[in-house]
Amino acid sequence: MGIRDTCVQDCLIGFYRDTAAPDSGRGDVLRFNGDIVSVRYNYRAQ
């Protein structure tokens, strides 16, 4: 379809794998009336 795959073409796959590693940081979710309104991930500096 000609849609650019940014994860492959920009070499981001390794970044996302590192981010999902168990010891990589901490995620926070902000809820309002039970609905998720914001998500933040604090990536640990190395």
Please provide a written account of the structure.
- This protein has 46 residues and is an alpha+beta fold.
- It has one domain (6-43).
- A hairpin with a 2-residue loop joins strand 1 (25-32) and strand 2 (35-43).
- It has a two-stranded antiparallel sheet.
- It is flat.
- The chain has two helices and two strands.
- The longest helix is centred in the middle third of the chain and has 7 residues, at 13-19.
- It starts with 5 loop residues before the first helix and ends with a strand.
What's the number of helices?
Answer: 2
The rounded Rg comes to 15 Å
Low confidence ranges: none
Structural class designation: alpha+beta
Q: Report, as a whole number of angstroms, the end-to-end distance.
A: 38 Å
Q: What gross morphology would you assign?
A: flat
Total domain count: 1
Lateral arrangement of strands in the main beta sheet: 1-2
Which band does the percent of strand residues land in? Answer: 35-45%
**Helix-strand pattern:** HHEE
Mean pLDDT: 80
As a percent range, the share of helical residues equals 10-25%
Oligomer: single chain
The strand count comes to 2
Q: Biggest β-sheet: count, sense, barrel?
A: 2 strands, antiparallel
Short description:
By secondary structure, the protein is an alpha+beta fold. It has two helices and two strands, in the order ααββ.
